[in-house]
Amino acid sequence: MKTMYDAIVIGGGAAGLTTAGIAANFGAKTIMIEKEHLGGDCTWTGCVPSKTLIKAASVLHNAKEASKYGLSISMDSVDTGKIMKHVDQVRKEVYEDADKPEIFERMGIEVAEGEASFVDDHTVKIKDSKGLVREITGRYIFVCTGAKAFVPPIPGVDDVDVLTNESLFEIENLPKKLVVVGAGPIGTEMAQSFNRLGTEVHVLDMTSGILANDDPELTDILLNKLKEEGIHYHLESSVNRLEKRDQGIVVHFEKSDESYSIYGDAVLMATGRKANIASLNLKAAGVNTNKGGIEVNDKCRTNKRHIYAVGDVTGRYQFTHMCEHMAKIATTNALLKMPMKIDHKHVPWATYTDPELAHVGASEKELKEEGVSFETYRFPFSKIDRAITDGQTAGLIKVFAKKWNGKILGASVVGAHAGEMISQYALAMKNGVTLRNFADTIHPYPSYGLGARRAADQWYIKNQSESVVKWIQRIFRYRGEIPDYSDKNRIV
Predict the structure, then answer these.
(1) Which residues on neighbouring strands pair with residue 96, listed in sequence order?
(2) Which bin fits 380, alpha (ψ -120 to 50), beta or left (φ > 0)?
(3) What is the enclosing helix (H) or strand (E) of 140?
(4) pTM metric for this prediction
(5) pLDDT for 453-476, tens place per residue?
(6) Which ranges of the chain have pLDDT less than 70?
(7) I need a labelling partner for 292 at 20 to 30 A (CA). Which of 80, 200, 236, 282 fits?
(8) What is the layout of strands, in order, in the sheet containing 200-205?
(9) Domains of the chain with bracketed CATH
C-alpha cells in the first residue's frame, strides 16, 4: 500500500526524539507526534530536574561541611525558596537548546501536536488540543510513548494530593517534612536531596534494604551514609492507609505486626512506573502487550512486522540511555534491514546519590545462581588518592571476572563519580578488554579513573603465587621478603 510517511514516531520523549532523528538521517519521510512537550519525562519530570535538584542540594551540603576542608562559610543568607525556580529554569533551557520542535523540523521531521491512536495497523489518528482530528498512514510505526508514575491503590490515596516525579518539580516551596514511599532510585535520590535542603525526610519500603537491584554490600554502604545524614528509614514496612489531616497527610503503616503512623507535609510516591499505552488503541493495530507494556523481541519489533516499540513503553528498561540504544536497534532493523539486537549483557545504570552507586553486567548474585566460575576483585575508595584529597573516601569497587584470563563479567561501584567510573567497565566489557589489559592501560594521577585501574591491578595480585615468587628469587638471587599470599583479602 502507498503510505504518507516512511516512519511514524508516536511520542516525543528520549526514545521518540532519537528514533525520529535516526529515521530522518536515513532519508525516511518522518513525522513525530507528541501530545504535550517534546523532551518527555527526561527533560520535564525525570533526569534533568532531578539532577538539577541533586546538584543544588550537594552545593548546600558541601557548604555546610566546609569546615572539613579548612573553610568557614556563613549559611545565614541561604534562601532555599528559589531552588525550585532554578530547577524549572534549567529544564526550560534544556528544552530550548535540545528539544523544541524547530530543531527537529530543521532536520526534515514533521512535528505534530496531539494524542495519537491506531485506526488500523498502518493508520494513526491524531487529535490535537482543539479537538481537530487527522489520519495518517505509515510504512513503519515506532511507539515511543514512555511510562508514567505508578501509584498503588492504597486506601485513602485518592483523597489526598500525593506527589510523584511528575508533580514533585512543580511545587513552589519545600515541605518541612516529607514522607517518601519507595526506596528505589527516585525515592533514594530525592530523599537525600530534600534532606540536605533542610526537609525532615522519612522513607518507607517493604524490602529490608534500598535499591533492590544493586549489590547489597554496596547499598549498605550507601544506606549507612544516608542515615548518618539524618534520613529516617522504616524498612520492611507496608503502607496500609493514607489520611488527610489539617494541612498534611498521615501515613499509616505496619512493621513486624505493629502499627505505626507518620505525619508529613507531603508524601512522595516513588513506587514504580507504568507504560503509557491506554490511549493508543493497540487492539485496532493487533499489537500484543504484556504486564510491562508493549511486547517486543530483541529487535524491538512487535508481533506486527512493521510496528516497533522503543524505551520505557516496553517495560524492559527504565533508563534514558536504553531508550537511545533501543531507538538505534529499532530503526536499523526497520529502515536498513540490518539485524541488530538489544545488548542485554552490558546495560549500565547509576543512582546519583552521594556517594553514587553504579553497576554494569552480571551481578554477584546472578553469577552464583548461574553456577559461573569467577573471582571478585575489590578496591576501596580509601586507597584512591583523589578520593582522599577530596574527602570522599566512602566507597568500594567490586569487579567480577574470570580468574585465568581476566574477562570482566560485571562490576559494581559505590563512591564519588561511580556513574563515570562504571563507563570504563562498560566500554571494557563491550570490547573484550580484560582486567590484564585494563591494568596495563596508563591512567592519569590523581584521578578517580585510576581507582578503576587499581581495582584491575588486583587481578595481577591474586594471580601471583608464593611458589612462583620463590622460583623468581632463586633464578635472580633476590633477597626480599615474600608477601603473605595466604591473606585472601590482601589489597595492593
Answers:
(1) none
(2) beta
(3) strand 133-143
(4) 0.93
(5) 999 999 988 887 778 888 888 999
(6) 1-2, 488
(7) 236
(8) 232-235, 200-205, 177-181, 266-269
(9) 5-38+100-148+274-335 (3.50.50.60), 157-272 (3.50.50.60), 349-476 (3.30.390.30)
